[in-house]
Amino acid sequence: MVRLKNRYLLVDILYPDSSTWPSTKTAGPQSTQLSIHSPTSDALTPGLLAKMVREEVGEMYGDWGVGKLGGASATGIHIKYLSPATSTAIIRCPRAAFRLVWSALTYMTHVPAVDGAGAGIRRPNGGRERPCVFRVLRVSGTMRRAEEEAIRRARREIVRVRGVEEEGVLGDLLGGVVQKEANAVSAKGVVDESEDEGMLVDED
User: Fold this and answer.
1) Residue 79 pairs with which residues in a beta bridge?
2) What does pTM read for this prediction?
3) Do 131 and 196 belong together in one domain?
4) Are 32 and 82 within one domain?
5) I need a surface site. Which of 6, 50, 156, 157 has the fewest CB within 10 A?
6) Does a structural domain hold residue 202?
């Protein structure tokens, strides 16, 4: 029995076009960060995203590209995870074709768009689309690694938006100890080099 090997692409959908950003009352770096990473419309379903990828591969590489994905039915493309709230997706594809899928995602520039009233946003080309950028964050051999990377990046984005540095699991505890030692040293006015060498600082 032959084991079919796949690749999992962790994809982030970004919205750099400021005209499509949701209206925010505060204009600052945090609101800009949130706007670029704004939620995707529920009109983008896993089936629709898989169809968009297959069509883009077919347009770029023709029958050869479609064959690499698994033939006319192109069953090799599966959307294992799609979150409109975080604009994140995990796409499974055959190992031999992951570069084709990656390049197709690079050239995809629109997703379906729905405004607050539930109606599509008309574009000059007549479609109801929202300009976007598909960014491949990680290519992994297992879905578990892709999920771990998605969680790690989500945590980092939350920390970045809040403007707080992440210090790890024991960051608060160690941070308090380091702060007490720093206060004691500043009170003495003298820095002992031996204590400085033995201090552990988590820079992760």
Assistant:
1) 91
2) 0.67
3) no
4) yes
5) 156
6) yes
Write the CA distances from 176 to 160, 162, 182, 194, integer angstroms: 22, 20, 10, 20
- Tell me: do 158 and 174 sit in the same domain: no
Alpha-carbon distance of 87 to 112, in angstroms, equals 13
Q: Are 11 and 91 in contact (CB under 8 A)?
A: yes
The per-residue DSSP string of 134-202 comes to EEEEEEESSHHHHHHHHHHHHHHHHHHHHT-----TTHHHHHHHHHHHHHHHHHHT---HHHHHH----
Q: Are residues 55 and 81 in the same domain?
A: yes
Residues 129 and 49 in one domain: yes
Inter-residue contact 66 to 77 (CB < 8 Å)? no
Domain membership of residue 111 (yes or no) is yes
Secondary structure element (H or E) that encloses residue 29, with its range: helix 29-36
Question: What 3-state DSSP class applies to 9?
Answer: strand
Domain count for the chain, please give it: 2
Domain range holding 180?
A: 170-204
CA distance 44 to 168: 35
- 200 within a domain of the structure (yes/no): yes
Whether residues 105 and 176 fall in one domain: no
